[in-house]
Amino acid sequence: MIRKNNNKKVFVSGCYDLLHSGHVAFFKEAYQFGNVYVGIGSDSTITDLKGRQTVNSEQERLYMVKAVRYVKEAFINSGSGIMDFEAELRKLKPDYFVMNEEGFSPTKQQLCDELGVELKVLTRIPDAGLPARSTTNIINAEVCNLPYRIDLAGTWIDQPYVSKHHPGWAITLSLEPIIEYNERCGMSTSTRNAARKIWPQNLPLRKPEEIAEILFKFENEPGSEIISGAQDAIGICMPGINRHFYDKKYWPLRFESIHNQEILNWLEDHIYMVLLWPRPEGLDLLKEIYINSTNVKRLADAADRCWRAIQEKDLDGFSSAFLDSFHAQIRMFPAMINPEIENAVNKYKSQAKAWKLAGAGGGGYLILVADKPVKGAMRIKIRRNGLGL
Q1: How far apart are CA 326 and CA 77, in angstroms?
Q2: What share of the chain is helix, strand, coil (3-state, %, to 5)?
Q3: Closest CA to 140 of 109, 193, 95, 180
Q4: How far is CA 178 from the centre of its chain?
Q5: Which helix (H) or strand (E) holds 168?
Q6: Strand order in the sheet with 148-153
Q7: Residues with Cβ < 8 Å from 265, sequence gap 6 or more?
Q8: Residue 153 near residue 302, CB atoms below 8 Å
Q9: Given this model, what pLDDT does residue 138 score?
Q10: Which residues are 357's β-sheet partners?
Q11: pLDDT over 70 percentage in the chain
């Protein structure tokens, strides 16, 4: 028997494309807190955030969600972006805002605090006897199993205008597509989208370094004014954790890899991610730059220390080097951060030992290093095989 408080309002929001048992289990769990009101992302919002068209239109999704017995009412959110539900939340004035952990963000917490709404973050658990489901897994099973990547240290060293001041390593980590990361959020989605044009479902059964080079050359056509760094293609195509050495060239001179299962397990236990907001369109990171031998050497030295600490499973050393690498990036490109990002970081300083942005700045995902799980953050899943499957 489900226990429900009929006097409470519960708000949930999402795209709910390809409605499945995981969605129904989520609505059922939210229903325990009161009457469930569902805000549904519009077709245009999902296209912008996910970089793909919806499988079912917003009207089809609205029809299906309304038919679920645990849902009191459903509607299409009127806004856009990650906070497309804000107007509906303000109008409804619910008692609770319920979401899964991958949907949590500091901005959502801030809005709930402003409105006096209690935020409930749930762990994705299937109903008894049913398999775990997510829209991403269903889509990926038929369409795209390509990995994502995060950079751990040395970002920007893959650009010759940086490495010409001092050579160094970039460190990347290949991730399983356990969720569908948002566009413009530092998860190398543009390079991944380029990969989908060559390999729509899986990476080919070839040497990972070779397919990384194929992808890099495909994305950067001759005559391109802006060259995407090689670390994006390498992070997607090469499993495990890799570091690649740059010296005045776009393609690295050499590679080193770690596939030790104990080390990869250790990283999964200590790296967490928090969704912020997409990188603003037109963000100009080059409007103010301080690229010189001193700052680039700091970046390179931090990456060296980060690699050694990972090999030794030294959490304090890893945290220190990870944070120093981020600070070195900021010294070179101050536009990476702004007061809004600083506020988001401040919310996690008591729980995390180190932090950095997943991409070029302005928004995206916040990567945290911590000695134990971080409330509201999701764990990573490292891609461990190189067979393109």
Answers
A1: 36
A2: 40, 20, 45
A3: 180
A4: 10
A5: strand 168-175
A6: 148-153, 168-175, 241-246, 254-258
A7: none
A8: yes
A9: 47
A10: 366
A11: 93
**pLDDT number for residue 37:** 97
Phi then psi for residue 3, to 5 deg, are -90, 125
Distance CA 89, CA 264 (A): 40
The token pair at 372 is: 């134990």
368-383: buried (b, 16+ CB within 10 Å) or exposed (e) per residue? bbbeeebebbbebebb
pLDDT, tens digit, 9 for 90 and up, residues 253-277: 999 999 999 999 999 999 999 999 8
Taking residues 156-182, what's their average pLDDT? 95
Residue 14 phi, psi (nearest 5): 180, -175
User: 182 in helix, strand or coil?
Assistant: coil
60 vs 321: CA distance, rounded Å: 49
∠ at Cα 31 (25, 35), nearest 5°?
Answer: 145
Alpha helices in the chain (DSSP H): 21-31, 43-50, 58-66, 86-92, 106-115, 135-142, 160-163, 189-198, 208-219, 230-237, 261-270, 293-311, 315-332, 339-346
Q: Tell me the per-residue pLDDT of 216-237, one tens digit each, with 9 for 90 and over.
A: 999 998 877 789 999 999 999 9
Q: Tokens representing 66?
A: 């309304």
